[in-house]
Design brief:
The complex is a heterodimer. By secondary structure, chain A is of the alpha/beta class. Helix content of chain A is 35%, strand content 25%. Chain B has two domains: 2-52; 83-294, MetI-like fold. The radius of gyration of chain B is 26 Å and the shape is flat. The chains are: A alpha/beta, B mainly alpha. Bound molecules: adenosine-5'-diphosphate and magnesium ion.
């Protein structure tokens, strides 16, 4: 591995020579090998179009839904090769949160939280459902705000609340990691800071891997940072070190606002 | 110098205001021209048809010419009603829906899923062409396929098939359009939960687009309800209520045509048209309401 890439013991996620192309031969992610630390917040940074989302979506195999996308290399989750896992098991272990809050518009708050069970036809008892809903909503600090309106549509909530509901939906499956793609770019600053606090709290039980367009956000909440440029992984290490003493010239230029 | 300039400006402003008023007046006038036919039609139907509408009108069959003639001669209301037409229309519209809705929705989903594929483009174009085929031609096709081929005679089934072919392209298009309106991210949210693709379609996309789908279906129904030409070649008509799909069957528009051809029944034309128009209008309003309430 390259010298600017920190080595991690007992990683929860590892990628080896991960390359992804939308059109044949035209790589959006190039030969990325990286290990992600368990129970940490890791931020993926880089200028727009550098392949952050593409990299993130490889981890729960979202790419295989689109025929044109080609993925090479390997990804391991909890030591297992994800290409050999059942898709449902993989996606239960790696929950995903998107840029825009996307609760299911036809479902109540309650049903949105247990949507993973409902839509997959996984039958659980009413009592267990209630517990999952309460625990997940407590985890995202939404319980007190919605406990009296659990059966209202999820889309009636504010943007920030909707995004927390979407995090709760991922947590309901009790995942190992949560993949977030710019989760706060579509919501207001107050709601953003709530979600940031939440992510820091959640790392106790989960591993957080988050794409962010916002350097100060990465500095505030992440333990490790990953800097990507033109599809390559340029630098990876403790956020503190990277922000105070970037090793690569391109990282430094990005962090000092020379581009991005 | 200054004062001259000012007058020109004021002059321009004046002219502009005048122009605005003129255009506004024209818009109002043209809108009136557009809506006046529908108001005149409804007024005519209500004035001439309302008298005949009663419970009997809905639960009794069409009267014979002789009964009608006697009633007209005595200055009474024509006895009987159009129960045979109402039930026939309901039967054939229901059967056409049963045929066209599943095929149309599945085809629409297919088009949405494979936007660029050759076969999808072909299907889309065929649906467009189908929509442009005159309904009498569809009647002829159903005549050859069903009247000659299956039921060996005029039948409700044949009528339903011709109506289903009419309805099909509308449902295909509205399904595809509705699904296209659903944000991709809703779909990805379900996929990211590990939900298999077919379940995403059944449990997320269709419920999310439900009001859109229903809008298309209601518009399709309101469209085929008033169709007459294809039914003349397929369902033919009947003087009694019939629920046997292999037998000739009446329909409200068919009855209107029959009443038109019988000088004694003229006043029934208006009441039947009023009923038909009312239902079609209601369906249209309902679907509009739904379209507004959807995402
Ligand atoms: N669906 C797609 N089809 C083709 N190219 C894409 C698609 N999505 C992203 N790309 C391209 O891949 C590159 C990386 O995109 P992305 O991972 O979305 O970047 P980021 O999230 O860092 O802004 C960009 O050049 C982008 O144009
Ligand atoms: Mg992105």
């Amino acid at each position: 591995m390259k010298e600017n890439i920190e080595k991690i013991k007992d990683p929860i996620i590892s990628t080896r020579n991960l390359s992804i192309a939308y059109d044949k031969g035209n790589y959006a992610v190039k030969q990325v090998s990286v290990d992600i630390k368990k129970n940490s917040v890791t931020a993926i940074m880089g200028p727009s179009g550098c392949g952050k989302s593409t990299f993130l979506r490889a981890i729960n195999r979202m790419h295989e839904l689109y025929e044109n996308i080609e993925t090479e290399g390997e990804v391991f989750l909890n030591g297992k090769d994800i290409s050999k896992m059942q898709v449902i098991k993989l996606r239960r272990m790696a929950g995903m949160v998107f840029q825009r809050p996307n609760p299911f518009p036809t479902m109540s708050i309650y049903d949105n939280v247990i949507a993973g069970y409902k839509l997959n036809g996984i039958h659980i008892k009413k009592k267990e459902k209630d517990e999952i809903v309460e625990r997940s909503l407590l985890d995202v600090s939404l319980w007190d705000e919605v406990k009296d309106s659990l059966f209202k549509k999820g889309t009636f909530l504010s943007g920030g609340q909707q995004q927390r509901l979407c995090i709760a939906r991922a947590l309901a499956f009790n995942p190992k990691v949560i993949l977030l793609d710019e989760p706060t770019s579509a919501i207001d600053p107050v709601a953003t800071s709530k979600i940031e606090d939440l992510l820091v709290k959640l790392k106790k039980n989960y591993t957080i891997l988050m794409v962010t367009h916002n350097m100060s956000q990465a500095a505030r909440i992440s333990d490790y940072s990953l800097f990507m440029y033109l599809g390559e992984l340029v630098e990876y290490g403790k956020t503190k070190n990277m922000f105070t003493n970037p090793k690569d010239r391109r990282t430094e230029e990005y962090l000092t606002g020379k581009f991005g | 110098m200054v004062s001259i300039k000012r007058t020109t400006i004021r002059d321009h402003a004046h002219r502009r205001i005048l122009k605005d008023k003129l255009i506004f007046g024209m818009v109002i006038f043209l809108s009136m021209v557009t809506i006046s036919p529908i108001i005149l039609i409804i007024a005519k139907l209500v004035i001439n048809g309302f008298r005949q509408i009663s419970l009997n009108f809905i639960i009794q069959n069409t009267p014979g010419t002789f009964e009608a003639m006697t009633a007209v001669a005595n200055g009474e209301l024509i006895p009987g009603g159009i129960a045979n037409g109402i039930t026939g229309t309901l039967l054939m519209v229901a059967l056409a829906s049963v045929i066209a809705i599943p095929i149309g929705v599945v085809t629409g989903i297919f088009l949405y899923e494979n936007p660029g594929k050759f076969i999808a483009n072909l299907t889309r174009n065929v649906a467009d062409i189908l929509q442009g085929i005159p309904s009498i031609v569809l009647g002829l096709i159903a005549y050859i396929w069903v009247v000659k081929g299956i039921t060996n005679g005029f039948s409700a089934l044949a009528g339903s098939v011709s109506l289903a072919i009419m309805m099909l392209p509308m449902i295909i298009k509205s399904t595809e359009e509705t699904l296209k309106m659903i944000p991709q991210t809703i779909k990805e949210a379900a996929l990211a939960l590990g939900v298999p693709y077919y379940k995403v379609i059944l449990k997320v996309l269709i419920p999310t687009g439900f009001s859109g789908l229903l809008t298309g279906i209601l518009l399709g129904i309101s469209r085929i309800m008033g169709e007459t030409a294809p039914l003349m070649l397929t369902a033919l008509g009947s003087t009694v209520v019939n629920f046997d799909i292999s037998k000739p069957t009446s329909a409200i528009p068919l009855l209107i045509w029959e009443f038109y051809n019988d000088p004694n029944m003229v006043s029934l034309i208006w009441s039947s048209s009023l009923l038909l128009m009312g239902v079609v209008l209601l369906l249209n309003l309902l679907s509009r309401q739904l379209a507004n309430s959807s995402i």
